[in-house]
Amino acid sequence: MLTEQEWKVRYNDFSGPLRSRAGEELPLNHKFIWNDDTWVALSAYLCGKGLVLDLGKCVEPDVMRAFVDKWKEYEDRDDLPQALENQILEENPVNVDLVPELSLNGKQLKWSGSSGTTYLPASVMSGVSAGSVPVPAQECPEDEAEPEFCGDEEADAWVRHYSLDASKVWAFHRINFVWVTMRKPKISSMRLRLKEGPHQVYGEPF
Asked: pTM of the entire structure?
């Protein structure tokens, strides 16, 4: 399990191993509503090459469970039509195609890439094996004595570090932006704008 002392966030340009110094955390803890969903801007990390922003989308367990129950019959199917796979992905409550824009001190930073993970409380995946739905969850055996969560340790570390409600489902996004100045700037203002990528619309074949 990742300890609080091991929690380090580094700028990631996805070109190789992360060897840079960990960034200085700037706690935000700002809740907002976007597309009728509850989000939290958790923290920004000021790194040598750029800024890293952690965002969390909160999903109610009953919403996620309804999605799981709807699609669990397709467990271990590797012959699904592409249109159906796309529909499942589109309906997944934790799946969001984020296109972020961040401005510091009135200047827009360049988005250089994102990563993420999903936290699932055990109640959501109870009785459902791993791989039955397209979310990064590990199997939670029914005979396990009240497991706390189904998922990787990284997602659990996010919940603990940010003191989030562990009974909720959380979709976490770690977004990297490049500085537009020669040196790491002092921040006087920060403005975030979120957009979504294109959606697929499904209809009857003809």
From this structure: 0.81
